[in-house]
Specification:
The protein has 145 residues and is mainly β. It is built from one helix and eight strands; from the N terminus they run H-E-E-E-E-E-E-E-E. An eight-stranded antiparallel β-barrel has the order 1-2-3-4-5-6-7-8. The longest helix has 18 residues. The radius of gyration is 16 Å and the shape is globular.
């Protein structure tokens, strides 16, 4: 096995251990980067997502108790978004705080609940959104552990 293959195997193993909580008792959880894009259709739902979360590369997102306030410059969205993995491995809920208007959206997210394979995972990061013909593509970046 080449050096690149060994490195790739090590990274994947670290991600799996970090997600499942299989690290030794008392050891700090392994952190990993999050990069997920939600294809949000205005007035639609559930919406599809794709990303780099091991075992949850694709799935659907539902708004849970969304609150949008509109202003002359755009608006503010506060609410929870429930992500369900197509794989059946579980899912998670993030609390989103975002501003939107021209040229898109910006904000922050925090993981507030998780189930299945992701139970106990913590995470947070930022959101940037770009308008599309059908709505907006919201990109969630950050880290989880």
């Amino acid at each position: 096995m080449g050096i690149r293959s060994r490195i790739a195997v090590g990274i994947v193993a670290g991600l799996v251990l970090g997600i499942t909580g299989s690290a030794a008792a008392g050891a700090a959880p392994v952190g990993y980067p999050v990069d997920v894009v939600v294809h949000t259709e205005i007035g639609g739902g559930p919406n599809d997502f794709e990303g780099n979360i091991p075992g949850c590369e694709t799935g659907t997102v539902l708004d849970v108790d969304p609150r949008a306030t509109f202003t002359p410059w755009g608006g503010v969205f506060k609410g929870d978004k429930e992500f369900t993995c197509d794989s059946g491995n579980g899912g998670f809920t993030v609390q989103l705080n975002a501003r939107f208007g021209e040229p898109g959206s910006t904000g922050s997210w925090t993981l507030v609940d998780a189930w299945g394979l992701y139970e106990g995972v913590k995470g947070s990061g930022k959101l940037t959104g770009t308008y599309t013909d059908l709505g907006i593509d919201d990109r969630y970046t950050g880290s989880a552990r």
